[in-house]
Amino acid sequence: MILEHYIDGAHVPSISGDTFTSLEPATNRPYLTVSAGHAEDVAAAVAAARKAFGDGPWPRMPAGERAATLRAIAAAIETRDERLAALECRDTGLPITQARGQARRAAQNFRFFADVITTLGEDVYRVGSAQLNYVLRKPVGVAGLITPWNTPFMLATWKLAPALAAGCPVVLKPAEWSPLSAGLLPEIMEEAGLPPGVFNLVHGIGEDAGAALVEHPDVPVISFTGESATGRVIMRAAAGHLKTLSMELGGKSPLIVFDDADLERALDAAVFGVFSLNGERCTASSRVLAHAPIYAEFTARLAERAAQVRVGVPDDPATELGALIHPDHHAQVSEYVRIGVAEGARLAAGGARPPHLPEGNYLSATVFADVTPDMRVFQEEIFGPVVCVTPFGSESEAVELANATRYGLAAYVWTSDLRRAHRMAQAVESGMVWVNSQNVRDLRTPFGGVKASGLGREGGRHSIDVYTAAHIVHLAT
Ligand code: NAD
Questions:
Q1: Is 231 near ligand 1, meaning CB less than 6 Å away?
Q2: Residues 65, 67, 68, 71: what is their CA dihedral angle, to the nearest 10 degrees?
Q3: CA of 150 to the centre of ligand 1 (A)
């Protein structure tokens, strides 16, 4: 069986007939053949979406009707939650217990944006009794959605839900390393009654199908989640068309622990933040900055906890850390372990393939201690189960170290001093800061990063802003 594109309400192969193969991370055996989209397939999908935008019902529907369809999509996702978990587990190597949460999060995205779109007002400005100026939000047109391979289904819905809520037909290009779960979307959209042409899906390699979507003149907005380096390429390509861009990019987020923190909770957060989801999480707390008085103790306890993280086959419910997505990624993460050792960081835990897992993309939970800011392992996003621990002496040094990378996605601060918590939270260069809290998401708040971690914000009405243009009417009364 071939996993095909979905264009204008129909499953279709690539016009060229080309395919690519997907590997199962647990074994690296090829197990899935996928249609490889090129520019002509993207053009067909964009044409269908453009038709749905130009004369279809979707952009013209009252928000309440669109919201009802979004809620039906949420319900259709939930009825597939075990299936989705099994697909994500097999396709991405995510532990099954963690894959199980994905359907709930995805359904929540659709329900949330159904609420947003039905409660969102439009602004009116009065100038005495002589003039009324009002703002209409109009869907911008076909939205190009390009998504990464980590938690691929959930992250696709984080873009699909607001784009559809805003009235934009979409073309989704999922990551080539994890195409499987997007294959559920056509049946979900059909079951929910989404009109044909509103949701289109083109599989393919990023530099080919993804680039064609970015280059297509009839796609005025690109919402991208992926690496900062890819974001740069996309920005350059989109510049020629002056497109709206929303960029959710990489991170190297610090978790800063002061000596007055609840160390037990900070430790739980550190372990969760970098070892759950296989460490393949954009907001992973991949740099721990520990206050000098507790540095030795915290590092030792983190290493102890890392050694207890159960690495195993993804479909075993006892597994806490599964298989990394792809042999190339496994090689890259392993190379960072080698680099860290060569740079003089102290390997306090992990760093190797567990002996009981001779094949597949496995790596033990890895802790580097005594990491200094000049090291590549401190500076570069590893995107795997590898954490670097660095000591700091003073609050100002903590800020300096926290801000010493080109990234600025998330930060985590652990302290029981309220005034210090505020000072730190405001001094850290990141789009989001969690204080004495794990990575708890509130879908209403702006999500995104500064510096190399992104441009623009999604979340709540910020997402709707990405997919709508403000249209201002100035009216003399
Ligand atoms: P990636 O940049 O390699 O690929 C992301 C997507 O872009 C894929 O669909 C890929 O096919 C496509 N692509 C690649 N080259 C392209 C091009 N030239 N033109 C158009 N599309 C192209 O990223 P990845 O490895 O799939 O994902 C991991 C990265 O994503 C990490 O850096 C992670 O931090 C980041 N991420 C960020 C967030 C966030 O919200 N900030 C969330 C999840 C992941």
A1: no
A2: 170
A3: 9
Query: Going by C-beta distance under 8 Å and a sequence separation of 6 or more, which residues neighbour residue 308?
Result: none
pLDDT digits (tens, 9 = 90+) for 99-146: 998 999 999 999 999 999 999 998 999 999 999 999 999 999 999 999
pLDDT in tens, 73-100: 999 999 999 999 999 999 999 999 999 9
Query: Is 243's C-beta closer than 6 angstroms to any atom of ligand 1?
Result: no
> Mean pLDDT over residues 225-243, rounded?
97
Residue of 109, 157, 207, 227 best suited for mutating to test ligand 1, as the one with most atoms within 8 Å of CB? 227
Q: What is the pLDDT of residues 335-360, one digit of tens each?
A: 999 999 999 999 999 999 999 999 99
Q: Which amino acid residue places its CA nearest to atom 8 of ligand 1? A: 175
DSSP label at 277? Answer: G
Predicted confidence band of residue 439 (pLDDT cuts 50, 70, 90): confident
Atom of ligand 1 nearest to the CA of 329: 25
In this prediction the pTM is 0.98
- With a 6 Å cutoff on the Cβ, whether 211 touches ligand 1 is yes
Q: Is 383 in the pocket of ligand 1 (CB under 6 A)?
A: yes
248 part of the active site? yes
Query: Residue with the nearest Cα to atom 42 of ligand 1?
Result: 282
Across 2-159, the runs of DSSP E, i.e. the strands, are 2-3, 5-7, 10-12, 19-24, 29-35, 124-127, 131-139, 143-146
